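Changelog entry

Holo records now carry the ligand SMILES as an explicit input line rather than a separate metadata file. Below, a converted record for adenosine-5'-triphosphate, shown in the new format.
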Amino acid sequence: MRMPAGAFAERGADLELVGIQKRFPGFTAIENLDLTIPAGSFFALLGPSGCGKTTTLRLVAGLEEPTAGRILIGGADVTGQKPHQRPVNTVFQSYALFPHMSIIENVAFGLRRRRIPDPSGKAHEALRLVELDHLAQRKPQQLSGGQQQRVALARAIVNRPALLLLDEPLGALDLKLRRQMQLELKSIQEEVGLTFLHVTHDQEEAMTMADTVAVMNKGRIEQLGAPEQLYELPKTAFVANFLGQSNLFTGQVAGTTSEAISVDINGQPIIVALPRAHRHTGDVTIGVRPEKVSLHLDKPVTDAARNLVGPGRVIDVSFSGVSTQYLVAVPGVGTMVVFAQNMAFGPVAQEGTEVWLSWNIEHGFGLEDDPADVNAEAPKFPADTDTRSIAAQKRDALISELEEG
Amino acid sequence: MAFAAFATQAAPVEAAPRRRSRMALFLLLPGILYLVLFFLTPLISLLLTSLQAPREFGDIGQYDYAFNWQNYVTVIDDYLPHILRSFGYALAATVFALLFSYPLAYFIGVKARRWPLLQSLMLVLVIAPFFISFLLRTLAWKQILSDESVVITSLKALSLLAPDAHFTGTPVAVIFGLTYNFIPFMTLPLYSALERLDTRYLEAGSDLYAGPFTVFRKVTVPLSMPGIVAGTLLTFIPAAGDYINASRDFLGGPDTQMMGNVIEANFLVLLNYPAAAALSIILMAVILIMVSIYVKRSGTEDLL
Ligand SMILES: Nc1ncnc2c1ncn2[C@@H]1O[C@H](COP(=O)(O)OP(=O)(O)OP(=O)(O)O)[C@@H](O)[C@H]1O
Ligand SMILES: [Mg+2]
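Structure line, unchanged by the conversion:
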C-alpha cells in the first residue's frame, strides 16, 4: 500500500506483523512477534521499559529493518518499503521536531510533501486541536516539553495516516491535559476510523483508551485482548502483576469437577471456576484481584460459592482516599493485599486485627504459566499506584463522556 | 508581604548585569588593545597610503600624504580583469571545495559514527597535508601537472588531451590549486556541524513522506548551515586574496594573475605603494560586502 498523493487516507488500514524478529548486535530486542491489528481499531501496546515497544513501532514505520519476518499494511507487504513510502506517521518518543523550522512549518511538513491543498490552513487547524495555535510562529526550542509533545502529536495527526503510531505521546502532560488529549485522540480516531497503535507505560491510559491491549515483555507479547478481559482473566503472572495488582498462590490441583478445580495451598483448599483456569492438572498458580477480596472481622458462615481463608492478621493499613489497602498475613497462604472501598469513615480494621478473607470463586483465575517459572519471573518493577483496579471503570466513564461531547 | 518579597528580589537582579558588563569590559581589554595595535593602526596606515600622491621631482617609490582618491580610479581601470578574476576563481574554488567536502564530511561525521576509529583516521588524513608546507605542496602539484610529467604525457598519449595542451598556467590549474589547498578549511567546519547532526530529525523527515533528496534539502542542509557558512567563508576569503597558486612560479601563468599577484607586484617590484594599498582596500571592502550579504541571506548572523 502506498500513499496516494494529494489526499488523506479515507480510513484506517489493518496492520499485520508476521514472524517478526529484530536482532541488534549482541541483543535480541524482538523475538518472533505475530500481531494483527484490525483496521480502525485503537490498539495499545503496554510493557515495561526496554521491552521493545519503540523497536516495534520503528519496524512498522520502516526506520528499522526486521531481521526476519514480514510487515503488511492494508494487506500489502511493505517490508521492503522506505519510511516515506509507507502510509504511516509516528509521534516520536523524543518528539524530533525540526529545530530550524517554526511550529507551523513543522506541522505543515508532511502535508507539503504530499501536496495536500491548503497545508498551512490544515496545520493551524491541527494546532488549534492541541491548543497551541497562538505559538505557531515560535521555534520548538521556545516551547515547554509538554507543548513540544503536543506539537509532535499535531504534526503526525494532521496527515490523517491510515495507521498512526504513537510512542508515549502523552507522557509529558499533566493529568488534566492528558485526559483532554486522550479524549481528543479517541474522537479523531473514531471520527475517521483510523488505526492507532499506541505505546504507553501507563496501564490506566491503555485500558481507558484502547479496544485491544497487548502486554509486551522482553520482546514477546504475553497476552492480548480487550482491557476487561486482560484485567479480569490474566494468563500469566507478569500480566497479573503488571496490570494492577494480584494475590497469587501456588499449589497442586487436588480435585476437578465439571465446574471447578480445587487447589491445595498448604492444606487450604481454594476453588477456581473451571473456565477461568488455564491449567487443570498438576502444579498451578491461581490468583485473585485485591478489590475482589472481602474483609471479615468475624468468621463468616461457610458458603460453597466463596473461598474463605483465615484467620489472618492485618499487618499494614494504608488509606488512599477512595479505598483502603490492607496487607493481611494469613498463615499457610502468605501475605494478601485487599482493597476495600471506604464506605464508612476510616478503615474498618486496624493493624493487628484478626480478620478472615473471602472471595467469590467466580472471581479467581488460574494462570497458564508453569509455577516453576512464576517465581523466577516476578516483575522487577511492581505496579506504581494502587488505583489501577478502577481503570476499567474509568474507561466506561471516558466512553460515556465521549458520547456526551 | 508577598509584594515586599518581590521588591527585595528585584533590586539585585537589576544591578547584576551592570556589574557583569563592567567585568566583561575588563576581560575584553587585552583583546581590544591588541586589535587597536595590530589591526586598526595598520588599517588606517593602509588607508592613508592608498591616498598618497607621488612626490614632485621625487624618485620612484617616493610618495607624500595627500587625498589622491584618483588612485582608486586608476587601479580599477588598470586591474579590473584581475579583480574580477580573483573573485571568480575564489568562487569557483569555494564551490568545488564544497562539492568535494560535503560528501566527505557527511561520511566522516554521520555514516562513520559506528566506527570511531575510522572516523579519527579519516580526520587525520584530512589534516595531514598541513604537516607539509603549503608552498611545497603547491610546488609538488606544479611538478605533477607540468608538461613533461607522467600524468600529462600519459593523458596526451591516450589522446585525452590535445598534443599541444598545457595544464600549468591555465585558469583550471589555478582553480584546482586553490580548491586543493583550501579543502581542509571547508571539510573541518562541515564535519563539526554534521557530527552533531541528530539523525532522528532525518528519520522524522522520512516518516513525514520526504524522500532521501528532500530530507537532504529540507533537513540536513539547513541543520548543517552553520558549517556550510563557516567553511565557505574560510575558503572564499583567503582564496580571493591568494597569490601563491596564481603566481607564475607555481600553478599560474601570465593570464591567470589575481589581485594578490598585482598587489605583490606593485609593492615589491613597481614600488607603487598607493596602488597596492588601494587594491588591498578594494579587496577588503568587496569581501566585506559580499560576506555580509551572504551571511544575512543564509540566516546565520549569530555566527559573526
Ligand atoms: N540500536 C540499538 N542497538 C542495540 N540495542 C538496542 C537498539 N535500540 C534498542 N535496543 C535495545 O532494545 C531493547 C528495546 O528497546 P525499545 O527502545 O524498543 O524499548 P521500549 O520498550 O520502547 O522502552 P521505553 O519504554 O523505555 O521507551 C532495549 O533493551 C534496548 O536497549
Ligand atoms: Mg520507547
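Spot-checked after migration. The interface with chain B takes residues 3, 61-63, 82-84, 88-90, 92, 94, 96-100, 109-110, 113-114, 155, 159 of chain A (CB under 8 Å). Residues 233-396 of chain A form a domain with the OB fold (Dihydrolipoamide Acetyltransferase, E2P) fold (CATH 2.40.50.140).
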